[in-house]
Hints:
With 121 residues, the chain is mainly alpha-helical.
Amino acid sequence: MHTPITNKDFQLLQQLRESQHEATQLYLRLTPCEQQVLELIANGLPNKAIASLICRSIKTVEKHRSKLMKKLGLASVCEVLRFWCRLRWDEFILGSPTQFPKPVPHNEWTLHKSTQSATMT
């Protein structure tokens, strides 16, 4: 038996959806590489590990990280994580995946989230 949704619950859900919509608009301004780096940062990976996974130098990852943070108006990794939660809140709370286009790596490597490793396609 499900508990009925109150007006307060409905308003909170509406605020979450509006916040997610705003975050989505910002997310879609990022390049595919910046989107990929954002996801890997949100998954707790340091620059060195990200560089290894996407087959780029640490300097390139730092550049992508700096650019994405500037585009999103974020000043710290904590803010990156808060942004990621706004963007993907429905996955955390409802268990349903957010429908975003997956970032395409600039090379022919594809990331596999389950193993956190890269394989050649």
